[in-house]
Structure formats: structure tokens, C-alpha cells
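Researcher: We plan to redesign the surface later, but first we want a full-length starting point. C-alpha cells attached.
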């Protein structure tokens, strides 16, 4: 089975995660998919296969080098797809040779994938693309990564002339809701280092990500009949609005790029008596990240000077920039870059404007940069993946195994 066949099979599993269930995995579809993969890995003859009650699936392709010790390298992808768009009844379609024009995904709903809105499409003219039917996401994030890892392992099995050490693979739940690494047993995994196959377009290699926190800001008001409210009513929604506009206008996702951090209002719910604003805070620089959190606390104090004891803020760190954990072992980046060049790919080292399981795993003792899986426009109906990018990702995994085996 090639990488495309695997991918088309995997996207049929509905594995959207859900941050409201407070379970691991957060949805039953992820465990159903994990059990399917467990059977596939068993049929391939992999060793040390384990699937725990939380949906973490691990397995080993034993090394074929006996005369010396070789590091154990891991490859990791996640089972879930984003809650942002339905993953039910995914119906992918292959565009055999993209001609550079608009792709009608769904004529009935007038859903069109156009290079006018998505100019990156023009980088793939002449290539075969897998697209959605316009009603769901595709699931390349991260079922492409799973398909690539398993296909690479199968290739190494079929080509024993490629010498390699033990290869550990793992597929975890709930990455999309920030919980993928929380119950990942690094000691049990037993790799010296690993790579998540969870990046975007071909060539991407990432070992920097945002420092991340979430802030829940609660405003307590006082409700009085509006006809008699003068000097008595405190409308918590108006106070919350006052707080929101005190934050820097241009430091939001829609106005930032590269290494620029932001405050992002992701939720608001309120009445006169109580309003809650939920923010995520992001910055690559640790000092600026800490200052952003302090700024929120400072604004809360300003509100409370005007409206006594009205504003209450809860801050919770989510993850940190893995760069500080990767820099002492930069040879693992050198290996990935060489593996890409050997596959005819120009490496593109970029900073992730987001998070990754690899960040949390790096802080748990498993250095874990991120490699492209090939997809674009993740988390929505315009998601697509070029087939040659998936095939090259397989080559990169095989090349990493070979380079480590040689060196």
C-alpha cells in the first residue's frame, strides 16, 4: 500500500478532538482509529506494539545494525483532527494535474479553492492534489504524517540494504486541543530524539515555536433596572469592552507575522452582571512573553481602580519555545536538513507561529523538532495536499534513518 492509499483510507475515520469532554482521548473516534492502526502495525510485523487506555500507540521497527550501537530515533504524528471544521464523512478527491485555475470543491455551495485567495496553489501547477468536497476538512493535519511514517517504515522493511538503528513510532491523541503530549510516556518511548511529522508545506523544518498562555478575564457587574440605573449599574459587558480596547490594537494575529507575538481574543460571553473574555497570548521571545502576561495583569488593576473588585484574571501557561531544548543537540537539525537535501528538497527552517507536540515533548526530555507533512490550509474546507509532497516526506524519513545508521 502506498502513501496515498493509506492517507485516503485514514481520512475516512472521524477523529475530531473536543476540549470540553475532559477525557483522553477526548473523542471515541480517535481510539477507533488507533485500534485500526494497531492492527495494521501488527500485520506488518513491528515489535513492542502498545496501545494504552489513553489512546497512545507506540511500536518499534528493530534496527539491522549489529556491530555497533546506533541511536534510537522516533517519528510521531497525531490521531486527531481540528474541532474547527467537521471531519465526518470526509470525501477527498484527487486533481490529477493541477492547471493553475480555480478548483470547484462544491458547486452546490459555491465553494471554490482559488489561487486568488490562496496564491501558494500556483507552486503546485502540474502536480496531483488531494482536495476536499467543500463540506469538511481533509485531515492532512495529521493523517498525512501518519501515512508517511507507516509508509516509510514499510519501505525500510522491504529494503534491508538500508542500514538503520531502532526506529520508534508513536501516534497520540488530542494534539489539536493542546493535550497531545500531556500523557505521552517519554521513558517508555525510549528514543534518543524524535521528529513530529506535523508541519505544512514541503521543506519546512521547525525547532522554534511560540511560548503560549491562556488568560480568562472575568468582569463582575451590577444589574439595576435601566430606568433607575444612574450611578448604580455596572454593565460588565461595557467594562469588558473597555479592557479589550486597552490592549495594543496592532498586536493581534491579523496584524502580525514572523517572530511578532500577539494577544488573541478567542471567546467572549456575557450579561450585565458577568462577562468573561478568553485570550491566548503568544510570543517566541520568553521575556516578551512574560511581559505580555504582566500587561494583562496591569490592565486588570487599572480596571479595578475604576470599578472596585470588578476584574479577575486567571493566567495559565500552555507550552514554551522548544528552541532552548534543541540548541544543545543541533545535530538532529543537521540530520534532518541533510535528509531533505538528499531527497532533492531545499530545507526551509522557519519558526512555528503556533504550537506543536514536539515543544512539550522537548521539555519532557525528548528533543523533538517538526518536519513537514505537506498539507496546506489546515483546519478548514480549503485544506489540500500535493501528492509529491507526501512522497517526499516518506523519502525524508527513510533518509534520516539511513543517515543515523551511517553516522
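Model: Full-length starting sequence:
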Amino acid at each position: 500500500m502506498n502513501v496515498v492509499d493509506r492517507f485516503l483510507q485514514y481520512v475516512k475515520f472521524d477523529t475530531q478532538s473536543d476540549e470540553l469532554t475532559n477525557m483522553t482521548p477526548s473523542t471515541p473516534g480517535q481510539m477507533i482509529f488507533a485500534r485500526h492502526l494497531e492492527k495494521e502495525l501488527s500485520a506488518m510485523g513491528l515489535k513492542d506494539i502498545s496501545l494504552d487506555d489513553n489512546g497512545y500507540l507506540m511500536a518499534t521497527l528493530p534496527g539491522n545494525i549489529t556491530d555497533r550501537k546506533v541511536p534510537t530515533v522516533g517519528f510521531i504524528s497525531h490521531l486527531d483532527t481540528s474541532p474547527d471544521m467537521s471531519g465526518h464523512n470526509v470525501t477527498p478527491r484527487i486533481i490529477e494535474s493541477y492547471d493553475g485555475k480555480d478548483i470547484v470543491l462544491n458547486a452546490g455551495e459555491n465553494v471554490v479553492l482559488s489561487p486568488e485567495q490562496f496564491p501558494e496553489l500556483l507552486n503546485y501547477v502540474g502536480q496531483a492534489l488531494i482536495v476536499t468536497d467543500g463540506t469538511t476538512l481533509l485531515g492532512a493535519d495529521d493523517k498525512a504524517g501518519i501515512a508517511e511514517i507507516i509508509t516509510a517504515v514499510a519501505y525500510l522493511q522491504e529494503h534491508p540494504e538500508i542500514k538503520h538503528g531502532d526506529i520508534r513510532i508513536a501516534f497520540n491523541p488530542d494534539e489539536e486541543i493542546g493535550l497531545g503530549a500531556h500523557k505521552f510516556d517519554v521513558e517508555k518511548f525510549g528514543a534518543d530524539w524524535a521528529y513530529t511529522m506535523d508541519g505544512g508545506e514541503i521543506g519546512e523544518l521547525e525547532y522554534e515555536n511560540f511560548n503560549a498562555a491562556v488568560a480568562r478575564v472575568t468582569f463582575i457587574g451590577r444589574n439595576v433596572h435601566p430606568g433607575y440605573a444612574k450611578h448604580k449599574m455596572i454593565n460588565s459587558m461595557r467594562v469588558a469592552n473597555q479592557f479589550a480596547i486597552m490592549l495594543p490594537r496592532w498586536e493581534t494575529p491579523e496584524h502580525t507575522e514572523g517572530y511578532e507575538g500577539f494577544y488573541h481574543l478567542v471567546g467572549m460571553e456575557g450579561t450585565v452582571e458577568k462577562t468573561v473574555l478568553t485570550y491566548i497570548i503568544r510570543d517566541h521571545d520568553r521575556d516578551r512573553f512574560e511581559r505580555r502576561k504582566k500587561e494583562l495583569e496591569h490592565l486588570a488593576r487599572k480596571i479595578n481602580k475604576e470599578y472596585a473588585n470588578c476584574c479577575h484574571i486567571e493566567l495559565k501557561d500552555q507550552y514554551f519555545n522548544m528552541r532552548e531544548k534543541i540548541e544543545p543537540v543541533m545535530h538532529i537539525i543537521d540530520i534532518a536538513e541533510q535528509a531533505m537535501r538528499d531527497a532533492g528538497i531545499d530545507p526551509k527552517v522557519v519558526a512555528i507561529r503556533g504550537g506543536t507536540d514536539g515543544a512539550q515533548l522537548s521539555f519532557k526530555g525528548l528533543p523533538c523538532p517538526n518536519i513537514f507533512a505537506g498539507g496546506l490550509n489546515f483546519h478548514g474546507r480549503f485544506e489540500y495536499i500535493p501528492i509529491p509532497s507526501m512522497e517526499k516526506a516518506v523519502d525524508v524519513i527513510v533518509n534520516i534513518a539511513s543517515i543515523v545508521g551511517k553516522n
